[in-house]
Amino acid sequence: MKLRKYGYLILSSVIIGLTLGSCNHFTSPTAVWNPNQQYATGGTISSVLPSNSGISSLPSNTAIAGVREITIIGKNFSKSIDSDWVWYDVDSASVKSYSLGGATDTIVIYRPPNFGTNLYMKLVIPASDSVGKYEYNMEQPVSSTDLSSAISGSFVMTSSAGNGSGDTIWIATTGYIYELLPGEIIPVAFMDTSYLKPKILISGKLGASDFASPFMDMKVGPEGRLYATFNNPKTSNVIYRLDPDSSMPVAYATISKTKTAAFFDFDDNGNLYTGNANGLFLIKPDGTSSSVGDYSSFTFVALRVIKDAGGNKFIYAANSGGLFRSPINSDGTVGSQQQVYSITSDTSKIVSGDNISSFDVAADGTTFIALTGSTSYSLFVLENGTLTPYYHNSSILPSGIQQLAYGSGRWLYLNTGSTTLYRMGIATGNGMPLLGAPYLGRGL
Questions:
Q1: CB contact set of 384 (below 8 Å; sequence gap of 6+)
Q2: Residue 108 buriedness (CB in 10 A; 0-12 / 13-18 / 19+)
Q3: Domain map of the chain by residue range?
């Protein structure tokens, strides 16, 4: 019996030994990379444009707010636009164009949504030995101010120059007019207008009506004072002056009782132009009024008097489907109507089903148009008769922009009909600040 046990032990030892011996033989797996592989030389970035914004408060190598495109210059780029990956910080960028030159290569990208300082533009070429990096700053393109601590509901706005210190934004909403002073984030009450709520019939009885906003339009006019029209059937034909030292608006101009004063603006001679469903009217400083211009069947959504770079003054007027302008003669009368833009004539498909809600014009004549409707974009630039989204990336701007107002500098203010006020920068194609066209209250 003992011999049998010893036999089992000997046999087990032999088997274990053979098994352990077989583990000494190792077959290495196929390498996942070839250490002798020769990789292409990675691309390098020598510069990124725009590199100088002309604004001393910003660091060098900075794209200011409003820049729409960025140009990357370097060497050893791929031979195909689809072969290079461009990143800004952690976000990939959309490439617009691509060119290979003798000494340098160039990639133009659309402005990415992220921003900041001490970030890097990166160029990645697959199967290359390095990543091209270039430190580059981008100013915040859009900032916002939450007005909910002071106002509720929608509002109408306008702006006035702040003697070099910034813009004062006037905000008219149900019950009050507020002013947002330069550098502040909380508006202060300017005038109580709660009495402007119209009375309507509720179950056969008169009752107060709370509605979106009692204001149709508001502008800074002669003597730097604030003027407004109200969405009130009893006062719809009157343009009021709003004086801070008075508890009640002062009737500044009145047109026929059968007509309404909806949208309006002033020229630098004190002439007032108001557009409504009955046409365009001129009210002179002496109070006389007359119908002017070919706007008899025009339903206004916005009106602005501006001066172009040549010193010529125009009335710009928009309805839901187009933008028009008429030159202002030396005597205040208005010349022939000129079509600036028509949605129905626009061959691009991006504006199908949309309506114009507002517009404004830059000092160099660049026209900005806000649309509401089906598109995911809301702010457009008029280029060669068609509208192009201001930013290629639709996430940069808020949707549903209802009103635009250029400030005294490079800032365009955006009203989306909520309690948030947005401010976006505007820039030229070479990355310099682009100011608004002059209007009364700013250099007209």
A1: none
A2: middle
A3: 44-138, 142-425
> Which of 2.120.10.30, 2.60.120.260, 2.40.50.100, 3.30.720.120 is the CATH number of 142-425?
2.120.10.30
CA distance to 21, 48, 126, per residue, from 24 (Å): 6, 58, 40
Q: Which residues touch 25 (CB under 8 Å, ≥6 apart)? A: none
Which of 112, 111, 115, 113 shows the shortest CA–CA distance to 140? 115
Half-sphere exposure of 127 (CA within 13 A, CB side): 7
Quote the tokens at residue 317: 């007027």
The pLDDT of residue 14: 46
Q: Measure the CA–CA gap between 156 and 143, rounded to whole angstroms.
A: 19
Residue 66's region, left for phi above 0, alpha for psi from -120 to 50, else beta, is left
- 3-state helix/strand/coil string of 118-172: EEEEEEECCCECCCEEEEEEECCCEEEEECCCCCCCCCEEEEEECCCCCEEEEEE
CA distance 439 to 302: 14
Architecture of the domain defined by 44-138: Sandwich (2.60)
Q: What is the pTM of this model?
A: 0.85
Which is nearest to 357 in space by CA: 67, 65, 156? 156
Q: In what order do the strands lie in the sheet with 69-75?
A: 44-49, 69-75, 105-110, 95-100
Please answer whether residues 23 and 16 qualify as being in contact, where contact means their C-beta atoms are separated by less than 8 angstroms.
Answer: no
The encoded tokens of residue 205 equal: 């009885």
Calculate Rg over the CA atoms of the chain.
Answer: 32
Q: Quick one: pLDDT at residue 211? A: 45
pLDDT tens-digit series, residues 224-279: 889 998 876 666 778 888 887 777 788 888 877 666 778 999 999 999 999 887 88
Q: Within 10 Å of residue 304's Cβ, how many Cβ atoms?
A: 25
CA separation for the pair 423, 148 (Å, rounded): 16
Angle at 327 between CA 326 and CA 333, to 5 degrees: 95
Q: Which residue has the tokens 């400030």?
A: 407
Question: Which pair of tokens denotes residue 319?
Answer: 């309805």
Distance, in Å, from the CA atom of 378 to the CA atom of 391, rounded to the nearest integer, reads: 10
Report whether 67 contacts 427 (CB < 8 A): yes
283: CB partners within 8 A, 6+ apart: 239, 253, 255, 271, 272, 273, 274, 289
Strand 199-202 to 156-161 pairing: unpaired
Pick from 361, 355, 315, 356: nearest CA to 338:
315
> CB atoms < 10 A from the CB of 117, how many?
13
